[in-house]
Specification:
mainly beta; BH3618-like; about 150 residues; about 5% helix; two-stranded antiparallel sheet; seven-stranded mixed beta barrel; 11 strands
Length: about 150
């Protein structure tokens, strides 16, 4: 039994086709977006290494994500036991970590939110943004460092 394709018209990406199995559901909403729980993680080789976190419920809501490792080699977020329980896993190896990126008018000033990463359990198709207690991680960590 094949799933039926669904379509949304994203304000950022245009026509996006997906199946129900592609949808990632937030276990708690993103701050300021409490009414939205279903998203797609979309990769596009034209935008590598950036990914899109597109709301299924509101085609105007789309976030930019990165996998932190290529940009922040020392980034190793620590979660409390409750986060592991909520995400249905026993360790970080079972989760994929993404950071939300803000790209201003001057792309050289782009930042990533390391303090509040997005955790995704692809096996269970759930996600959660968590706020880390570790103050080393900046909310607006520069993606690019200017040489000086």
């Amino acid at each position: 039994m094949s799933e039926q394709k669904r379509t949304i018209l994203s304000s950022k990406l245009g026509k996006v086709e997906f199946e129900d199995d592609d949808v990632i559901t937030l276990v708690t909403p993103l701050l300021g977006f409490g009414e939205l729980s279903d998203y797609l993680i979309i990769s596009n080789t034209d935008y590598f290494p950036f990914l899109w976190f597109q709301s299924v419920e509101d085609p105007t809501v789309c976030f930019i994500l990165i996998e932190p490792e290529p940009f922040f080699k020392d980034y190793k977020p620590r979660l409390n036991k409750r986060e592991y329980k909520v995400m249905g896993v026993s360790d970080m190896a079972s989760l994929k970590v993404f950071c939300i990126v803000v790209i201003p008018d001057d792309p050289k000033k782009s930042t990533a939110n390391l303090r509040a990463p997005l955790l995704v359990n692809f096996d269970r198709k759930i996600a959660k943004q968590t706020v880390l207690e570790d103050e080393r991680w900046d909310i607006r960590a520069p993606l690019l460092y200017e040489e000086g």
